[in-house]
Amino acid sequence: MINDRVTGARVIRTAVPAEAEAVTALHARARATYYPDGVPDDGTDWLATWRSAIARPDGHVLCLVDDGRIVGLASFRTPEGAPARTVKLFQFHVDPDRWRSGLGTALHTACVEQWQADAKRTAVLEVHVDNTRAQAFYARQGWAAHPVEPGHHHLRMTLAPTGE
Question: In degrees rounded to 5, what are phi and psi of residue 39?
């Protein structure tokens, strides 16, 4: 697992089960920003989903804590059926009140360092097609976008964590 990474009052570390509610709340605040008509209710129990992600022995949920409050999170693992050297970034969120403060870049750097330590050669993610702010962030971090498949609502992006 990732070691705690401390920079000033900020700590990036593995989330613990007792933080599932705080993680779920941050996730909801961040998602609400790219759904102009409100977050669709798809029936997902996000608290249960985050509890499961935090408990997964084959996954990582990192949280960025600033002055005792979770202000960023990232969830990643090798997806079912994918090659062992592939990692998927399932969720990546920063508190909207803290955008453009360097938190996302710091959290992303911690993710890439973990992927390098785990010898991952390919990182993949999907970002909502309407979330142009996130797409621009990922592009600045070196992610490459792939064409959106007809009928899909997500853009696929890839990154080579080792820089290859």
Answer: -65, 125
Rounded Cα distance between 16 and 70, Å, is 12
Q: How far apart are CA 152 and CA 150, in angstroms?
A: 6
């994918």: which residue's tokens?
Answer: 82
What is the phi/psi pair of residue 152, to 5°? Answer: -95, 155
DSSP 21-90: HHHHHHHHHHHGGG-TT--------HHHHHHHHHH-TTEEEEEEEETTEEEEEEEEEPPTTS-TTEEEEE
Evaluate if residue 153 carries a pLDDT over 90: no
DSSP code per residue over 77-126: EPPTTS-TTEEEEEEEEE-GGGTTSSHHHHHHHHHHHHHHHTT--EEEEE
Using the Cα atoms of residue 41, residue 44, residue 45 and residue 48 in order, give the sign of their dihedral.
Answer: negative
Q: In the predicted model, is pLDDT for residue 20 greater than 90?
A: yes
Residue type at position 77: R
d(CA 9, CA 68): 8
Q: Which of 21-35, 57-71, 136-150 has the lowest mean pLDDT?
A: 21-35
> What Å distances lie between residue 13 and 1, 74, 78, 152, CA to CA?
9, 10, 19, 33
* 65 strand-pairing partners: 11, 70
pLDDT band at 7 (very low <50, low <70, confident <90, very high): low
